[in-house]
Amino acid sequence: MSYQNILHEISERTLLITINRPDKLNALNTVTISELNHVLESNMHNDDIQVVVITGSGQKAFVAGADISEFADFSGEQGRMLSKNGHQLLFNYVENYPKPVIAAVNGFALGGGFELALSCHIRVASDNAKMGFPEVTLGVIPGYGGTQRLAQLAGRGKAFELILTADMIKAEEALQLGLLNAVVPQSELMNKVNEIAEKIKSKSPAAIRHAIVAINANYTDGVDGYATEIDEFGKCFEHQDFKEGTKAFLEKRKPSFKGTAQQS
User: Fold this and answer.
1) pLDDT band at 260, cuts 50/70/90?
2) Does the structure show a pLDDT above 90 at 234?
3) Is residue 12 flagged as an active site residue?
4) % residues pLDDT > 70 (the chain)
5) Which of 135, 172, 198, 232 is catalytic?
6) Residue range 3-15: average pLDDT?
7) N or C: which end of the chain has fewer CB within 10 A?
8) Three-class HEC string of 43-102
9) pTM greater than 0.90
10) Catalytic residue among 35, 95, 115, 232
């Protein structure tokens, strides 16, 4: 399927998704969110893909916010639906995606762009990247999970500061706050992302799926993360990857993981 606002390609078991609205600094609108959901959903069960990378086109912006012109005249109820749909179609969807999603933050990540990066499992940024939530300058708040994920990763105090002042931070400060996994020169961004992806791809796809569920459980209201870990740990024993991994360890060789469920 061809898309209006995104590019995608599969290479070496990695799905690379590029948000491609350079004239709008890759700002998110409802079409772009829908297309991102579609390409992710279409490839969820594609065994040829083990890692997903999301980035922005050009060298200025990852995603420089949402498309304000799209909702400037919305009512309160329309605003609620905009936020709810965004959570369901993209931001929560990415966070709970069964394959690791890496954000390659190649420039400005503001508003919805910052929220998209925060919803990814791993974040790598170029040293020119800047992040922030400018929403209060528009009379609104982050609506795609930013108030929650920023506090989870950087703490309540820093979340209050960044959201209430609308200050932008540079990549190095974001790294120090634990918002990023690595910062590299822009010319090395994709090399670093691919380096991380290659490490992941050598591991068990089945175990990685269960690890994502277990880690996210700690941040889900009403869910006992420890109980979830016990359950997900047990499920690992039902996969061929567990048999292969333990056998390879005992035979002192590299495992050959398939990621498929053990046949009963």
Assistant:
1) low
2) yes
3) no
4) 98
5) 135
6) 97
7) C
8) CCCCCCCCEEEEEECCCCEEEECECHHHCCCCCHHHHHHHHHHHHHHHHHHHHCCCCCEE
9) yes
10) 115
